[in-house]
C-alpha cells in the first residue's frame, strides 16, 4: 500500500513533490541530527486523493494518522488526549513550490476546555488561554469559514468592558471570552470539537481543501504552478518558549543580511513565543546575550547554525525555540538579503570553499546588480508614499525633484541648484540638454524604446515612459492626474525600476562603488561566451561604457550627435535647403561637428570595435512642430516663415516609421551618408597617423532589399576611397555591415551575407514591424494587455521568442549558410535584457549591445547563459 504518512526522520530532502517544501526541509533538518520538534508529514498524494474522493479520508488515511499520533506520543513522551503532560501540535500546509500565505495553518491543536487548564499550570494563565483563544479563532476561520475579524471584535469589546488588556485577564475573565468565542460557533450552528483527534481530522481536511481556495488558485495561475500537485500537511509537536525563564525564542541570520558580514545577526526573547519577537511589544536582545543567560543553548545554537550553513551552502535565516533549557530548531531557509549582502556572501562562500565560482555567479540575479549601480528609494519610506501614477519602467533608478515642463526650464532651475524632473508628453532631440540636467524624466506617451527611454537609459537617468494617467499640458504647465492637478515646481518622486511616480519627496539610498561587484564581473567574463558591447555615442556614455567593461561599441546612433541647438539648426538647414549653396554650407558644418565627434569616439574606445550607424530617423524628427518654433527657425535661416511652414508640411508623412528613413534616406539623399563616411574616415586617418590602430565598422540601417545594400555599399566604398586618395594614403581595413530590422531582411539574410561584413539585429524596429505595434505608442495599451493576460511581457523589453525570436533564428541560420563566421550582434533594447540573453546564447549570436548602465547586469547574464547552456 502506498505510504501516506512520513515521519520527519523517514523523509528525504529531494522528495518535495511528495512531502512539500516544508516537509522535505523538516526531514532534511531532522536527518542532519538537528533538534527539530518531532512530527510527521501527510503526503501531497493523500491530499489529491481526498480532494477527488472524500471518503478516502476515513477509509484509508485516518488510521494512518491515528497510528502516527500514537508514535508521536511515544517519541515525545507526551499525550495528545490525556489531561496531563500535554502534546499539542501545529497543522501546516506545505506545497512543493512555496506559496507564502496562500493556504492554511492551525496552531495549538489539541487544547480543549480542560487541557487548557493543564497548560496554564505548565506555562501561565495568560499564555494558555491565549493559545486556546487563537486555536478557536484559527479553527473557526480555517475549518468553518467564520471570519477571523469577528473574534477580534469580541476581544476588543471585552477589553473595553474590563478596561484592561487581555494579558491581564483573570482566569474567569478568560473563560468568559472563550465562551463568547464558542457562542460565535453556535451562531453558525457548530460546536467546537473538544476531542483532540476530531480537531486533528477536521483541521487536516480543511488544510487539504485550502489547496483549492480562490487565492491559492490565483497564485498558482500567476506563478505557473500546476494545479494537480496538492499540498502536504505537516503535523508537528509544539514546543513552548514561554514556559519560564529558561525558555525563549528567537530568529537569527547566520550572516548579516544588510552587509553580508560573516557574523551572526539576530535576536531573542526569554519567556516568549515566536510572535512576540516579531510583534515588537518587548524589545528583544541581540543573540550574543543568550550566551550569558543560557550558555548551553547558545553553544548548541551556534553549532547547529554552522551545520545548517555548511549544509545549505548559503546564509540561513533560522527560527528557534528553547523549552526549559532545551533548544529546538523550528525552521531554516536561505536568508533574504540586500544586494550588497548578496554579493559579499556569494564571494565569501567561494573563498570559504563552500561553493564554486560558477555557483556564485548563478546565485546573484542581474537585477541585484542594477540595484548596486543605481540609487533606490529608502524602502522604509516608500511604503507610505502616496502613489500618483504608473507607467513603463524605462530606465532604472530613483529620484525626487521639482516638476518642469521644458528643457529650458530644466536648465534654468538646474543652474539655480534645484533638482528637477522633466515631465513631457514625449521628448525629442531638442530636449537633450534639459534631459541631461534632470534627475528623472517622465513622459505621458511612448514605449520602452521611445526617444526618452533610449536616451535616459544611455545616460543612466531614471525614466518612466507611457505614464498615461498624466495628462500633460506643456503650454499651461500643468499635469492632470485623476482629480489632482500638479504645476511647475511641485515635488514628485520617480522610481524608474518599478515605473511608479509618487507625490512628494522620498529619500534615496545611493549605491556605492562595490569592489565585490568588480570581482564578480571578472569571474563572469571568465565563463561568458557572448560578448557585451555598448550602445553609446556621446563621449560621456562611451567612457561609462568602457568603465563598465564593454568589449566594444555595438551601436553608435549618429542622429543623437545632432542633438543640441547648434547642430540641429544645421540639420534643419540641410533638410530645408533649396539650393546647392545652402546644402553645401550645412554639410560642411555638419561634417566638422561629426569629424570632431568621431575623433573623440575612436580615441575613447581605441582598438576596440566601434560600430557607427549611418543616419536613420525620418527627417520630420529633426523639424519643429510648433508654429512659434517654425517662425524662430525661419528667422535663423533667413527665410519667410510661410515657406518654412509649407516645406515642413510637405515633409510630413502618414506613417513616418514606415516611411522615408534609414537606408532609404541614404539612397535618395546620398550626400548625407557621404558626408558621414567622410567625417568618419577623416578622423580615422588622423588617428592612424597619430599611431592608433583603429578598425571602423560602418552600419547601414533598415535594409530590406539586397540591391539597397549593394547600391549603398558601392557608393560608400567610392567615397571612402576618395577620402584616402585625398589624404594620399593607402586604404586601411574597415567593415561595412547592415542592421536587420525588418521581417523581410531576416528571410533574405543569406543573400545579404554575400555583401555584408557583419549583421546586427535592431530588435526595436524588428519587433515593431513584426508585431505591428508602434514602438512609440505601445505604452497606451501594454499595461491593459498585461492585466488581461493577453501578453505577459512587453516585447520591446523582453524578446518575443516565438515570433521575433524565430525570425532572428532563421536569419542567423541563413546568414551562416552563406558566411559561416559572419559576426552577428543584437543592438535593440532586448540585447540588454537578462531574460532574453539565454535565447541569444542558444541561437549562436556573437554579442549583445546595450546602454552603458545595463552592461554590468548583462555581463552577469551572459555568464549565466553560458554556464547553463
Ligand atoms: C533597433 O531598431 O532596434 C535599433 C537599435 O535602432 P533604433 O532603436 O535606433 O531604431
Ligand atoms: Mg531601428
TrEMBL record:
Q: Which residues form the active site?
A: 451 (tele-phosphohistidine intermediate), 827 (proton donor)
> What EC designation does it have?
2.7.9.1
SUPFAM superfamilies for this protein: Glutathione synthetase ATP-binding domain-like, Phosphoenolpyruvate/pyruvate domain, Phosphohistidine domain
Q: Where is the PEP-utilising enzyme mobile domain?
A: 418-499
Name the UniProt key words of this record, in alphabetical order. ATP-binding, Kinase, Magnesium, Metal-binding, Nucleotide-binding, Pyruvate, Transferase
Q: Do the record's keywords include Repeat?
A: no
Q: What class of enzyme is it?
A: transferase
Residues holding substrate? 557, 613, 741, 762-765
**UniProt name for this protein:** Pyruvate, phosphate dikinase
Q: Which PROSITE patterns match?
A: PEP_ENZYMES_2, PEP_ENZYMES_PHOS_SITE
Amino acid at each position: 500500500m502506498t505510504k501516506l504518512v512520513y515521519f520527519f526522520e523517514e523523509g528525504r530532502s529531494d522528495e518535495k513533490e511528495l512531502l512539500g517544501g516544508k516537509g522535505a526541509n523538516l526531514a532534511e533538518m531532522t536527518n542532519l541530527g538537528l533538534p527539530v520538534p518531532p512530527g510527521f508529514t501527510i503526503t501531497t498524494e493523500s491530499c489529491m486523493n481526498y480532494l477527488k474522493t472524500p471518503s478516502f479520508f476515513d477509509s484509508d488515511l485516518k488510521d494512518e494518522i491515528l497510528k502516527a499520533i500514537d508514535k508521536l506520543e511515544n517519541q515525545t513522551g507526551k499525550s495528545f488526549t490525556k489531561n496531563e503532560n500535554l502534546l499539542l501540535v501545529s497543522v501546516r500546509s506545505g506545497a512543493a513550490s512555496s506559496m507564502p500565505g496562500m493556504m492554511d495553518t492551525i496552531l495549538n491543536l489539541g487544547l480543549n476546555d480542560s487541557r487548557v487548564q493543564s497548560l496554564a499550570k505548565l506555562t501561565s494563565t495568560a499564555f494558555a488561554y491565549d493559545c486556546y483563544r487563537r486555536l478557536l479563532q484559527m479553527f473557526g476561520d480555517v475549518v468553518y469559514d467564520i471570519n477571523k475579524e469577528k473574534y477580534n471584535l469580541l476581544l476588543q469589546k471585552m477589553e473595553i468592558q474590563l478596561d484592561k488588556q487581555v494579558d491581564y485577564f483573570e482566569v474567569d475573565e478568560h473563560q468568559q471570552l472563550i465562551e463568547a468565542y464558542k457562542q460565535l460557533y453556535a451562531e453558525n450552528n457548530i460546536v467546537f470539537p473538544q476531542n483532540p483527534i476530531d480537531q486533528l481530522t477536521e483541521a487536516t481536511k480543511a488544510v487539504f481543501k485550502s489547496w483549492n481556495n480562490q487565492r491559492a488558485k490565483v497564485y498558482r495561475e500567476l506563478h505557473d504552478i500546476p494545479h494537480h500537485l496538492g499540498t502536504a500537511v505537516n503535523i508537528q509537536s509544539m514546543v513552548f518558549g514561554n514556559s519560564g525563564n529558561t525558555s525563549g525564542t528567537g530568529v537569527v541570520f547566520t550572516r548579516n543580511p544588510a552587509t553580508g558580514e560573516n557574523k551572526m545577526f539576530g535576536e531573542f526573547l526569554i519567556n516568549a513565543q515566536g510572535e512576540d519577537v516579531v510583534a515588537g511589544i518587548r524589545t528583544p536582545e541581540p543573540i550574543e546575550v543568550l550566551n550569558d543567560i543560557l550558555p548551553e543553548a547558545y553553544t548548541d545554537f551556534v553549532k547547529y547554525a554552522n551545520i545548517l550553513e555548511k549544509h545549505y551552502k548559503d546564509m540561513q535565516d533560522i527560527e528557534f525555540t528553547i523549552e526549559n533549557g532545551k533548544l529546538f530548531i523550528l525552521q531554516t531557509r536561505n536568508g533574504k538579503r540586500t544586494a550588497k549582502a548578496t554579493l559579499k556572501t556569494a564571494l565569501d562562500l567561494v573563498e570559504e570553499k563552500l561553493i564554486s565560482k560558477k555557483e556564485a555567479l548563478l546565485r546573484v540575479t542581474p537585477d541585484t546588480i542594477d540595484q548596486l549601480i543605481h540609487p533606490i528609494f529608502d524602502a522604509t519610506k516608500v511604503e507610505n508614499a502616496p502613489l500618483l501614477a504608473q507607467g513603463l519602467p524605462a530606465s532604472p533608478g530613483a529620484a525626487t525633484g521639482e516638476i518642469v515642463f521644458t528643457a529650458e526650464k530644466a536648465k534654468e532651475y538646474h543652474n539655480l541648484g534645484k533638482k528637477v524632473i522633466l515631465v513631457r508628453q514625449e521628448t525629442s532631440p531638442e530636449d537633450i540638454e534639459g534631459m541631461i540636467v534632470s534627475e528623472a524624466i517622465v513622459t505621458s506617451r511612448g514605449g520602452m524604446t521611445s526617444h526618452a527611454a533610449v536616451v535616459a537609459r544611455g545616460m543612466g537617468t531614471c525614466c518612466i515612459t507611457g505614464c498615461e494617467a498624466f495628462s500633460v499640458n506643456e503650454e499651461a504647465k500643468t499635469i492632470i492626474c485623476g482629480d489632482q492637478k500638479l504645476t511647475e515646481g511641485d515635488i514628485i518622486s520617480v522610481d524608474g525600476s518599478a515605473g511608479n511616480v509618487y507625490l512628494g519627496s522620498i529619500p534615496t539610498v545611493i549605491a556605492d562603488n562595490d569592489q565585490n561587484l568588480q570581482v564578480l564581473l571578472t569571474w563572469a567574463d571568465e565563463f561568458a561566451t557572448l560578448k557585451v558591447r555598448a550602445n553609446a555615442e556621446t563621449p560621456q556614455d562611451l567612457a561609462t561604457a568602457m568603465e563598465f567593461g564593454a568589449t566594444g561599441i555595438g551601436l553608435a546612433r549618429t542622429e543623437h550627435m545632432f542633438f543640441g541647438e547648434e547642430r540641429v539648426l544645421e540639420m534643419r538647414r540641410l533638410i530645408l535647403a533649396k539650393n546647392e549653396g545652402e546644402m553645401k554650407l550645412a554639410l560642411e558644418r555638419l561634417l566638422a561637428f561629426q569629424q570632431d565627434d568621431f575623433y573623440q569616439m575612436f580615441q575613447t574606445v581605441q582598438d576596440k570595435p566601434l560600430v557607427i550607424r549611418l543616419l536613420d530617423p525620418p527627417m520630420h524628427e529633426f523639424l519643429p512642430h510648433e508654429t512659434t518654433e517654425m517662425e524662430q527657425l525661419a528667422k535663423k535661416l533667413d527665410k519667410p516663415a510661410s515657406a518654412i511652414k509649407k516645406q515642413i508640411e510637405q515633409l510630413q508623412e502618414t506613417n513616418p516609421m514606415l516611411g522615408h528613413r534609414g537606408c532609404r534616406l541614404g539612397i535618395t539623399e546620398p550626400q548625407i551618408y557621404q558626408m558621414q563616411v567622410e567625417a568618419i574616415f577623416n578622423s580615422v586617418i588622423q588617428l592612424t597617423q597619430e599611431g592608433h590602430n583603429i578598425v571602423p565598422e560602418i552600419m547601414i540601417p533598415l535594409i530590406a532589399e539586397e540591391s539597397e545594400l549593394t547600391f549603398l555599399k558601392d557608393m560608400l566604398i567610392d567615397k571612402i576611397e576618395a577620402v584616402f586618395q585625398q589624404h594620399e594614403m593607402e586604404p586601411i581595413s574597415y567593415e561595412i555591415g547592415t542592421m536587420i530590422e525588418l521581417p523581410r531582411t531576416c528571410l533574405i539574410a543569406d543573400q545579404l551575407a554575400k555583401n555584408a561584413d557583419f549583421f546586427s539585429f535592431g530588435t526595436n524596429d524588428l519587433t515593431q514591424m513584426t508585431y505591428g505595434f508602434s514602438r512609440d505608442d505601445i505604452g497606451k495599451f501594454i499595461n491593459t494587455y498585461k492585466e488581461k493576460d493577453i501578453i505577459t511581457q512587453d516585447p520591446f523589453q523582453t524578446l518575443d521568442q516565438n515570433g521575433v525570436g524565430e525570425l532572428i533564428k532563421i536569419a542567423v541560420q541563413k546568414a551562416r549558410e552563406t558566411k559561416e563566421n559572419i559576426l552577428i550582434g543584437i543592438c535593440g533594447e532586448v540585447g540588454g535584457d537578462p531574460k532574453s540573453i539565454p535565447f541569444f546564447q542558444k541561437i549562436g549570436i556573437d554579442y549583445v549591445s546595450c546602454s552603458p548602465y545595463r552592461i554590468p547586469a548583462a555581463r552577469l547574464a551572459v555568464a549565466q547563459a553560458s554556464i547553463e547552456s
